[in-house]
Every structure is written in structure tokens, then in C-alpha cells.
Design goal:
One of its GO terms (molecular function) is transcription corepressor activity. It holds the Pfam family SANT_DAMP1_like. InterPro entries: DAMP1_SANT-like, Swc4/Dmap1. Belongs to the SWC4 family. This protein is mostly helical and about 550 residues long. Among the domains are: about 70-125, no CATH class; about 135-180 and about 190-255, Homeodomain-like (Arc Repressor Mutant, subunit A, Orthogonal Bundle); about 415-485 and about 525-548. It is about 50% helix and about 5% strand. Strands 2-1-4-3 form a 4-stranded mixed β-sheet, with no helix packed on it. A hairpin with a 2-residue loop joins strand 3 and strand 4. Helix 12 packs parallel to helix 14 and helix 13 crosses helix 14. The longest helix is centred in the C-terminal third of the chain and has 51 residues, at about 445-495.
């Protein structure tokens, strides 16, 4: 079968199109990778394998110094931190170094005519400074019935050896008192057992010895701040408190999970109580600040009328309600119950006129049978007589016509209603009695007593005024009578004649005296009438005030 037959079967044209020219591949020069097999390199195809060829680069030759090599020698040295003075050690050192030790590395120690350097690590052997004392100082300052000098020396030596590590000192403490017995009676002698010392006893004894010797060697007046603080710390050591602290720590480590939870709940409750006490203290301070506030220097004439008092009461109620609203809302201005307003209870003020309690019973609704009764506000609890007396609650039979008034205004009214002179007199009497002009705690009982006291002071001042006026009139009349008696006695002593002319002259002089005395008597009578009217007016005022 030829190609023509195939084209006829496939309905293809008889003439075949010329074969397209073959596309020549342009092969880029491929990098030659040394050290890689040809098969592995051909796997990459047209994309060559990304392998960085290794370039063999040798390091440059490092030339040392042209100086000759250093020489070393095995040099001897000692360690002053060791107790053995005869111990001599050796180590390698450069030969060009000086025979003496370099600065900061150790001290040179002379031995057998040569110089032996000290170890560089001897400076790290820091020892604790313990108290030093002799027999005389111990007998004078450090005697104790429970401690002997040998045991005290043993304790100080242990503290020096173990660097005041008290658990190790207490563990190694094995003091045995020295006993000198007669060989003949040694078998039957009774030896007292060494006393068992606790860790707190060892600390207390050592701190007592150290503080005492510190004051002996250097008076406290010449000590610096660090030394004086150390002295106070050692003197104030309390072994009983240290023992109780350890017992408390041991009990805290050995407590159970239930006890830990209970302690945590108690701590939370304690924090809550402290927070509440802080809040109460802040409110108490605010109340005291209001009570002790100085009197206002502004104009109070606006609030003297009932309308002004009503306006002031309305302002105070608005300020109180805004303050309560701010305390109920959260810090961001929203309710703490959530944005949806669920579980919120409507708050109301008993002083609001729009909120009234139901008088028909707890249900809060009338006898309406069409629907269920709406829940009304809870019934107000009645106060007991003791509570009413405690809180100062009074239920008046009727509201006074002047409207509500403040208790402070009622207490100041007996003083402000008087003249300035009488006000000064009343305030001076209060100062003399030691009573403040403005009460600090004006309760009901204190207010009643204060009001009664002011009424008594006003009555006494009025009575004193009337008494002084009457006493002045009495003194005037007495003085006038005394002068008349003196004049009459003088004239009687001057009458020595026995004729008719003398009698006539006496009668004329008596008539002239009566005429001259007539206006004065009328004036005196007028004065008596005026004093009687003033007395009656004052008595009527005092009677009305007492009745009121």
C-alpha cells in the first residue's frame, strides 16, 4: 500500500505538502565540571547542574617572629593559703622573667637565702574575721553561765574554719569539755554530759561575742554606717523568732494541696477586705472634709426663702443622682453586666417624686382580673425605734409652712437672728465654754443640746442687760437722794436766827426748791415710766421666746 492509497482512505489531498525544515538546535557551551561523572552531568539536560566548582586555594604561609624560641624553667613557689609552711611546689615559668613574682600574681617569700614566689591563687583564700579576745577581756565582758571559755573558743574556731556556714558548723559541733580527774577517783567519778546546742543557740552566742568585742575595740560613736548597721544586726538577733520562722517555713513546705487552696482563698478574702477598708477610709475622709469645711463667704441670701431652699435641694439631688450613675457605670461608660443590658436591675431614688411605692399591697397592682399583676417595688422596711433614734429619723405630723430646712441652718438661726453686738457676746460665751462655733458632728441629740444652750445664753444675756439697766437707775436715784440729804443738812446747819424774817426766808427758799425740783421729779417719773415699759417689753419677748 502506497502513500497515495492512505491519503485516499483518509480523504486527504493527493499532493502532500512539503516537509517543514528541521529546526536547528543551538547548543550553548556547557560548563565543564571537573570531578563529576559524564552520566551525572547529562541528567541535567539543557539546564546545567548548579554546582560551584571547587577551587583549591592554599593558605599563605605564616611566618613566625624572627626571634628565637623562649626558654622555660621549672621554678619553685609556695602557697601562703596552706597551713604547711614547709611545703614548696614547682611550676614552669619563662626564663627571661625576673626571679621575683610579677605584680598582682603573688608575693615573694624569702627562704633559705633565695626568693620563692607566692602562688597566684593565694589571694583568693579570703578568711572570715572572727572576734579576738584574751582572758582578761573574756572575764570582764564575755562571761556567761551557760558557756565556758573553752566552749566559746571552740565555737569561734569552727566559725573561722567553716566561714560562718552555720548548718556545717552545727553539724560538726562536737564539743567535749576537758576533764582533769585524779587517777584514784577516775573510775567512780561522774562526768557531766555535754549540753546539746541548737543552731539558734550557736548563732546567738557567736553574735553576742562578736558585737561585744566590736564595741570594745571600736566605740559606736566612731563607727561608720556599715559597721554600725552590722552591730545593730548582731545585737537584735532573736533566737526564738528565728526558730519560729523556720517552723513556719517547714509547715509551708509540707502543706497539702487543700491547705494551699484554702490559704489562697483566705488571701483573696483578705485583699477584698483591705480594699473595702480603703474605700471606707476614703469615704470617711471625704465626710470629715465636708464637716470641717470653712463657712462659705458667698451670698446666702438667695437660699433664705423656701423657694431658694427648694432650688438648692433640687441641685443637690441632681448632683447625687449623677454621682450614683457614674459609680454604677463601668470605667468605659458601659454597664458591667454587658452590652446587652441583661441581668441589670433598674435603680431608683427614694427621693424622686416619679417613683412611688404601691399602697395596695406587695403585688403592686389594683384588683384588675384581666391580666396578671405586674411586680411592683418591694415594700419598705419599717425602722425600729432604736434604729430611728440611731439614724436620727423623725416623722413629723405635718410639713412646716416654711418648707424643708437644713439642720445646720436651724442651729445657726439663734445666733444670726441677733444683733451684731449680741452675736459677739454669744460667740464669746461659747469660746469661754470651749464649744466650737460650728459643730463637728451635728446629730439630733447634739443639735437639741446645742439649741438649748444657745437659748439659755440668749436668755442670760437679756436678763443681764435688764439687770444692768435697773441697777443703773437705782444707783442714779441713790446718788440724787444722797445729794439732797447733803444740801438739806448744809442748809439746816446754816440756820442760826430766831426772827420772823428768817422763817419767811426759809419758806421762800423751800418754795423755790420745790419749784426747781418739780421738773426734775417729772423727769424722774418719766424715766421710771420708760424703764417700766422697756422692762415689760423685754419680759414679753423672753416669754415668747421660751414658749417658742
Amino acid at each position: 500500500m502506497t502513500s497515495h492509497d492512505v491519503r485516499d482512505m483518509l480523504d486527504l489531498p493527493g499532493e502532500a505538502a512539503p516537509r517543514p525544515a528541521k529546526k536547528q538546535k543551538v547548543a550553548a557551551p556547557r560548563p565543564v565540571l571537573k570531578g563529576l561523572a559524564r552520566e551525572v552531568q547529562n541528567l541535567g539536560g539543557d539546564n546545567p547542574i548548579a554546582i560551584v566548582p571547587e577551587v583549591s586555594v592554599f593558605k599563605k604561609k605564616r611566618f613566625g617572629s624572627r626571634k628565637p624560641a623562649a626558654k622555660w624553667e621549672n621554678r619553685s613557689f609556695k602557697n601562703s593559703a596552706r597551713d604547711d609552711e614547709t611545703l614548696v611546689l614547682k611550676h614552669w615559668r619563662r626564663k627571661d622573667e625576673s626571679s621575683a613574682a610579677p605584680s598582682g600574681e603573688g608575693e615573694a617569700v624569702a627562704q633559705d637565702g633565695g626568693v620563692v614566689e607566692d602562688s597566684t591563687f593565694a589571694k583568693y583564700n579570703v578568711k572570715v574575721i572572727t572576734p579576738q579576745y584574751d582572758d582578761e577581756q573574756y572575764q570582764r565582758h564575755l562571761q556567761d553561765n551557760n558557756w565556758s571559755k573553752d566552749e566559746t573558743d571552740y565555737l569561734v574556731s569552727l566559725a573561722r574554719d567553716y566561714d560562718l556556714r552555720w548548718p556545717i558548723i552545727w553539724d560538726r559541733y562536737e564539743y567535749q569539755p576537758a576533764i582533769n580527774l585524779d587517777p584514784e577517783t577516775a573510775e567512780v567519778a561522774i562526768v557531766a554530759k555535754a549540753e546539746n546546742r541548737t543552731l539558734e543557740n550557736l548563732k546567738a552566742r557567736y553574735y553576742t561575742v562578736a558585737a561585744t568585742m566590736m564595741k570594745v575595740h571600736k566605740p559606736p560613736e566612731s563607727m561608720n554606717q556599715a559597721e554600725f548597721n552590722l552591730l545593730e544586726l548582731m545585737q537584735n538577733f532573736n533566737p526564738n523568732q528565728e526558730k519560729s520562722r523556720k517552723q513556719f517555713a517547714e509547715a509551708a513546705f509540707s502543706r497539702t494541696k487543700e491547705e494551699a487552696r484554702e490559704e489562697e482563698s483566705l488571701l483573696i478574702e483578705l485583699k477584698r477586705i483591705l480594699a473595702r477598708s480603703d474605700k471606707l477610709a476614703e469615704e470617711r475622709r471625704e465626710l470629715y472634709a465636708r464637716l470641717e469645711a470653712p463657712p462659705s463667704t458667698g451670698n446666702i441670701g438667695v437660699f433664705t426663702s423656701s423657694q431658694g431652699l427648694q432650688q438648692l435641694l433640687h441641685q443637690l439631688m441632681q448632683a447625687d443622682k449623677s454621682k450614683k450613675r457614674r459609680s454604677i457605670m463601668g470605667p468605659d461608660g458601659t454597664s458591667p453586666a454587658g452590652p446587652s443590658g441583661l441581668n441589670q436591675q433598674p435603680s431608683f431614688d427614694r427621693r424622686e417624686s416619679s417613683v412611688r411605692e404601691s399602697t395596695s399591697g406587695p403585688s403592686g397592682g389594683s384588683n384588675n382580673k384581666k391580666g396578671p399583676a405586674q411586680p411592683g417595688p418591694t415594700e419598705r422596711r419599717q425602722l425600729a425605734p432604736e434604729e430611728m433614734q440611731l439614724y436620727g429619723v423623725k416623722i413629723p405630723e405635718r410639713i412646716p409652712s416654711s418648707g424643708p430646712s437644713f439642720r445646720s441652718e436651724k442651729l445657726q438661726k439663734p445666733i444670726t437672728s441677733k444683733s451684731s453686738v449680741q452675736q459677739q457676746k454669744m460667740l464669746s460665751v461659747l469660746t469661754e465654754l470651749g464649744i466650737p462655733h460650728r459643730l463637728i458632728m451635728p446629730t439630733i441629740a447634739v443639735g437639741e443640746s446645742y439649741e438649748a444652750l444657745l437659748g439659755g445664753i440668749a436668755t442670760l444675756i437679756d436678763q443681764r442687760k435688764v439687770m444692768e439697766k435697773i441697777q443703773g437707775e437705782i444707783n442714779t436715784i441713790k446718788e440724787k437722794k444722797r445729794r439732797e440729804e447733803e444740801e438739806r443738812a448744809a442748809k439746816m446747819s446754816g440756820f442760826g436766827g430766831d426772827g420772823v424774817g428768817d422763817d419767811r426766808d426759809v419758806k421762800v427758799e423751800e418754795g423755790e426748791r420745790e419749784k426747781s425740783a418739780a421738773p426734775s421729779m417729772s423727769d424722774t417719773g418719766g424715766q421710771h415710766k420708760r424703764s417700766a415699759s422697756v422692762l415689760s417689753a423685754v419680759s414679753e419677748k423672753s416669754t415668747k421666746r421660751q414658749k417658742k
